[in-house]
Amino acid sequence: MVANLAQCFDEFAHSLVKSVYKLREYSADDVRGIRGANLNHVLGEE
């Protein structure tokens, strides 16, 4: 039971990591653009 649960969690964590990496690859430029826009907004520079 415990080993099965651990394996299930391990598979879930692995798929989650893969999803995060895929998301990072897909939107790295978008994230940089959003960060830059937010930073400029915070600094009061439109």
Structure description:
By secondary structure, the protein is mainly α. Helices cover 91% and strands 0% of the residues. The chain is elongated.
Helices, by number, come to 1
Mean pLDDT: 73
Name the shape in a single word.
elongated
Low-confidence stretches: none
Beta-sheet strand percentage?
Answer: under 5%
Largest sheet, in brief, is: none
Give the beta-strand count.
0
Order of helices and strands: H
Distance between the termini: 57 Å
* Residues in helices, as a percent range: over 70%
Question: What's the Cα radius of gyration?
Answer: 18 Å
Query: Which structural class matches the secondary elements?
Result: mainly alpha
Present the secondary structure layout.
Elements: H1 2-43
Describe this protein with a few key phrases.
about 45 residues, mainly alpha, 1 helix, elongated
Q: What is the structure about, briefly put?
A:
The chain has 46 residues and is mostly helical. Helices cover 91% and strands 0% of the residues.
